[in-house]
Amino acid sequence: MFAYRSPLKDLPPAPGAPLGQPLSSRVVLVVVDALREDTSRKPDVMPFLNQLRGQGAWAVMHSQPPSYSEPGWTTIATGAWPEINDSPAVNVDYDKIWPWTQDNIFAMAKRAGLKTAVSGYDWWERFIKPEWRDAGFFTHGEDDAADRDVLNTAMPWLTSGSYQLVLIHIDQVDYAGHHEGGPRDPHWDAAAARADAMLKQIAVTLDFKKDTLIVISDHGQIDRGGHGGQDPITLLEPLIMAGAGVKPGQYPDVQMGDVAPTIAVLLGTNLPASSEGKPLLETLNVDNTRQALIQKAWSVQQATLASAYASAIGAPTSSQASAQTAIAATRESRESKEQLLRLVIAGVIVFVVSLGGAGLLAWKRNRDAERLVVAAVLYIVLYNFIYAVIAGNVYSMSSVPAAGATAFVIEIAEYTLMAVIPAWLGAMLIAGAFKRGAANSVQATLAFAFVTIYFLYLPALWGFAMNGASVTWHLPDPLVAFLHFTNLLQAVLVAVLSIILSGVAALVGSRLKATVRVTT
Fold it and tell me: Does pTM surpass 0.85?
């Protein structure tokens, strides 16, 4: 996942012609990081945002996994989903971020001769090339103090009216989710309330007869805090637009990919060349003649993008109306062929290992074989009880802690250890393996490990069949990939622990058998 790059990385589609007369003299885009859609609707927490919702256009916005900031920001700016927008698929450190390779709202604004500015977290500095921005302020802070610096820097830009595209990034809600207890903690609503007050400060500098304010989020967070996975709550965000060119009202659900092409219509620039979204014309004051022209430009852009993607992955171009559906069909065409081969390989592996397992269990006495299976199932039940019920994790990347992937691997190791020891002890005691001496104890331990690893490898093999052995030309199904990874990790840990437990079993078995002989 860390190494994934878009098939369009080196061959981005070329941008089309500008859309003509702008609807707005400037667009101010405010990204409130991690703001959940349900939080945004709380009038007691975010009164100004709900007032703005009442006088503007608003809708529930949907994103796609991975629900991290870096791919989300890139979708907002390019209109392309993470699979093709060439952002890092998961959040990486500042010095590992590369500039956007696909057409984006800043590049298209500069081509149109507009001035741009951005104030926010320092990851934006790496994404947005210096030639795409006329002013910028970047901080590595994430809390209220950092947001205050971000806002104080942006305010003169807003009052001067010198910039036609301004992006302001407010980060403290995400900080509260990661470091102050998550959305269930009062700190979350407190951060959202402070962000709401900042929105009001931004809005009072604008003339809504000439300017347009857009407020969105990049992802949500699960209740305990965290994001990155396919959890529905992390893939819902608010979209509120108010001001010039906007037709007030509540609208049907939209997609995050629709934001960039809508900004293009507001500013009169070209549509972002890699955008899979569409301009939200129903929310804008656009007459029928202009709508027809924009729709024609969108159709050309979509066909160009679909052709570029098909060429990049070496598959026939689909004839779907939108690039999003065409790309999905093209992807499925190639992926289904690869999955068929992997399914055969996985089936052969399961068959061969099952035969070996049947031989192993036949070698053991029938009564022992049943107990080994029960013990392996006990391990799986215990592990998942510890993981999901006691620790409160979800089966997605959203459970990876803010400390990073290494901390998550350590957690999985701890859960595995806590589950495998009682399951192993249960198998040994019920089967009476210790009483039969060292050799029998070691054999029973390794047999227990074999059966447990067998069960763990079944979802891992399914992950291989569906997604491949590693991430290559497309992003994997997130749930399948998560289970693939965590089950492989458990299998390795069980294998290592079985070697240690074999030594323990040999020691206990030899001493217990010696004790029985002496007693006899």
Answer: yes
